[in-house]
Amino acid sequence: MHIVQPIRSLEKIQEVKQYLMKKSERDYFLFIFGMNSALRISDVLPLRVKDVRNKDHVWATESKTRKKRKILILESLKADIYAYTKDMKENDYLFKSKRTNKPISRIQAYRILKEAAAACGLEEIGTHTLRKTFGYHFYQRTKDIAELQRILNHSSPSITMRYIGIDEDTTRAAYKVFGGL
């Protein structure tokens, strides 16, 4: 199994944003929407303009659990949604393929993120990195693991901590303190 990590550095997030902004508006929006929605990529890709434009939340049926959930749209994301969708029709997919009238595939989303990661010197990156990055930075700012557990729909705080890479960070820090014998 390929393990992916959150992007822990805010500077690296900005670097990836800059890279994608120069490459493609769609790819840039995929990155920021994925990081700021806490949705799995399989729940992001089928979204249409009408699902997010002028909305305070997104209704998503989670592909993994089949539960219908109300996901808040952050105020900081609303301006990006408006700018990205202003010339789109209500029924357009947010992340439409350039070749078909369907959304891009998970594989294409993965390729987009891997290319950007490589260009910015990041490793262990995949589509799940977006959701993990949301979780990591939500926890760093709020320290509210119970709320993050609820947002990510996890069954326990320990699963959430491991998911966002906090356990790994703690272990790494402990090894540094220990230093050796």
TrEMBL record:
Signal peptide, first to last residue: none
The yes or no answer to whether the keyword RNA-binding is present is: no
A Gene Ontology MF term for this entry? Answer: DNA binding
Q: Which residues form a coiled coil?
A: none
Q: Which CDD domains match?
A: INT_C_like_3 (cd01192)
Residues forming the Tyr recombinase domain are: 5-176
Q: Please give the Pfam families that the UniProt record associates with this protein.
A: Phage_integrase
PANTHER family recorded:
INTEGRASE_RECOMBINASE YOEC-RELATED, PHAGE INTEGRASE-RELATED
Q: What is this protein called?
A: Site-specific integrase
Which organism is the protein's source?
A: Bacillus siamensis
